[in-house]
Design brief:
Blueprint (H helix, E strand, L loop, with lengths): L1 H16 L3 E3 L11 E3 L3 H18 L4 E3 L9 H5 L2 H4 L1 E6 L6 E3 H27 L5 H7 L1 H22 L3 H10 L16 E4 L3 E4 L7 E4 L5 H6 L1 H7 L6 E10 L14 E11 L4 H17 L8 E5 L9 E9 L2 E12 L1 H10 L5 E3 L4 E3 L2 E8 H12 E5 L5 E5 L10 E5 L6 H12 L5 E3 L5 H11 L3 E5 L1 H6 L1 E6 L5 E5 L3 H9 L1 H5 L3
Parallel strand pairs: 3-9, 19-20, 19-21
Antiparallel strand pairs: 1-2, 4-5, 4-6, 7-8, 9-10, 10-16, 11-12, 12-13, 13-16, 14-15, 17-18, 21-22, 22-23
Helix pairs in contact: 2-13, 5-7, 5-8, 7-8
This protein binds glycyl-adenosine-5'-phosphate.
């Protein structure tokens, strides 16, 4: 655990030191769970968004984009269920005065049991060596089975209590498990209460005529209310999708874990409208397709898993999370929900407008069902950034910090470095930057010894360093150094564009999906 904490602290400080993420309004001591993306962060974030957009919109001729407003008519949130049911169960500790999400306290307790299972696996792996069969061990070892049974029974009871709004039982569960305030160890808890997560604001100039609004807590509703507009103007036939990226706002009770849980964040959502009855096959399709998208980035197949929901949201008939192994354990990264016709029907009811699709083949109108994929852009950023940051032991007994970002997403694709600041080398280096910047983000760096500049670019995640030296002045060559292998090759200046393109071109990455 201490190790995980250390790793996570390193991630946060590296993100600040290298211009990726800053605390919002830092000079005023910051604003809790609100962050700003700095000069490198904004590039990485844009590249992740683009990678998602290309995979979802550009590569699918039956998916189109949308950019709906953040402000929506207040009835939207009544229809969607957010006014009545977008609550989290909160609990306060009377001694420390700290506030927690009751369900997260229980889930964290289960994570500790899960850590015990992982410990048993590691021990057994050491004992049995090569012959170790993890799957068999997990399904037969009595101690592991006991731990798993305990986790299952706790989570199933939590799920039932939340579903039945039995908040008294949630508190009883916390007390029975002996869960203490993680900061102080106190077990002096208040009752569990529900807390609505939407932020309120006002539209209008005068106090009397102002209208109460909410900042949208998800982008999805902008898609639902525009369903018929897009379907008609785009002459879309089922099945088809509408994709959108944009800000969402939630007044999270517990804002911890850096950009994992924020109060202002960005979502990338896609609603796929389908014929009722086909949701089972589309659910499978999008589960597989979204997982392939994740795996294409090469962060390690073992770092992902599905978590199928037992407890379903009020709108869903099936749901799964794609979980990622963050520095603090496996947590939700993306949700895939079969939302039935809940949203379109609810908006029909509340608006009095028909939101139906006329099926020419069947010669009838009906309300489509919806399959949703929803991923947090900031969470994806954290997954990539934390996974990429490594301390590497080198052969000469030194270490280097390297940010092994997938090359397609790296903020800068190359840095051009004159070996020394004289003899015409800076001029050649600057000319290379001028030529390459039509195609890629390229940095120029002439400060410090070249070894230190390499380390700086490694830590910044730049896949290539191009060094201009005296030898190259003679024959129009440079050396190109690869961030991950540290291998250097002498190449012709005129070939640089193709060499870089080969590794960073989005096409070759998307082809893995
Ligand atoms: N339209 C469905 C929906 O909003 P959700 O599971 O509440 O579903 C979808 O959110 C995704 O949005 C999550 O998987 C997560 O990646 C991201 N997300 C949700 N709340 C977040 C927060 N407070 N901070 C950062 N990302 C968040």
């Amino acid at each position: 655990m201490a190790n995980q904490d250390d790793k996570f602290k390193r991630v946060i400080s590296h993100a600040k030191e290298y211009g990726y993420v800053f605390q919002s309004s830092e000079i005023y001591d910051g604003l809790s769970a609100v962050y700003d993306y700095a000069q490198n962060g904004v590039e990485l974030k844009k590249n992740i968004r683009d990678y998602w957009w290309r995979a979802m919109v550009q590569m699918n001729d039956n998916i189109v984009g949308l950019d709906a407003a953040i402000f929506m008519h207040p009835t939207t949130w009544k229809a969607s269920g957010h006014v009545d049911a977008f609550n989290d169960p909160l609990i306060d500790n009377k001694d420390s005065k700290k506030r927690y999400r009751a369900d997260v306290l229980v889930e964290d307790y289960c994570l500790k049991i899960e850590a015990k299972i992982e410990k048993e696996v590691k021990k057994a792996h050491k004992r049995f060596g090569e012959a170790f069969d993890k799957a068999e061990f997990l399904s037969t070892n009595p101690r592991v089975l006991g731990y798993q049974e305990k986790i299952d029974s706790i989570l199933s009871r939590l799920g039932k209590s939340l579903e039945n709004e039995d908040l008294v039982d949630v508190k009883t569960l916390i007390e029975e498990l002996g869960i203490a305030d993680p900061l102080t160890g106190s077990k002096n808890w208040t009752d569990v209460k529900q807390f609505n997560l939407m932020f309120g604001t006002k539209l209008g100039a005068s106090a009397e005529s102002a209208m109460d609004l909410h900042l949208r807590p998800e982008t999805a509703q902008g898609i639902f209310v525009n369903f018929l507009n897009v379907q008609k103007t785009g002459r879309m036939k089922l099945p088809f999708g509408i994709a959108q990226t944009g800000k969402a706002f939630r007044n999270e009770i517990v804002a911890r874990q850096f950009i994992f849980r924020m109060r202002e964040f960005e979502q990338m959502e896609m609603q796929f409208f389908i014929k009722p009855g086909t949701q089972g096959e589309w659910f499978k399709h999008w589960k597989a397709t979204r997982m392939k998208w994740h795996l294409s980035l090469g962060l390690g197949d073992d770092n992902y898993r599905f978590h199928d929901h037992d407890k379903l949201a009020h709108y869903a008939d099936a749901a799964t999370d794609i979980e990622f192994k963050f520095p603090f354990g496996f947590k939700e990264l993306e949700g895939i929900h079969s939302r039935t016709d809940f949203d379109l029907k609810a908006h029909e009811e509340h608006s009095g407008k028909k939101l139906q699709y006329f099926d020419h083949e069947e010669n009838k109108s009906y309300t489509p069902y919806v399959l949703e994929t929803s991923i947090g852009l900031d969470r994806m950023f954290l997954a990539i950034f934390s996974n990429s940051l490594v301390e590497e032991e080198l052969d000469n007994n030194t270490t280097r910090t390297v940010l092994r970002l997938p090359a397609v997403l790296a903020p800068f694709k190359a840095a051009v470095l004159p070996l020394v600041k004289k003899d015409g080398l800076p001029e050649v280096a600057k000319q290379i930057v001028e030529d390459l910047k039509w195609d890629f983000n390229v940095a120029y760096d002439e400060k410090d010894a070249v070894g230190r500049r390499y380390r700086r670019q490694d830590a910044n995640g730049t896949p290539f360093c191009i060094t201009v030296d005296h030898e190259g002045l003679e024959d129009n060559t440079v050396t190109i150094r690869h961030r991950d292998t540290m291998e250097q090759k002498r190449v012709k200046i005129k070939d640089l564009r193709e060499i870089i393109k080969k590794e960073v071109d989005v096409r070759s990455w998307l082809m893995k999906i």
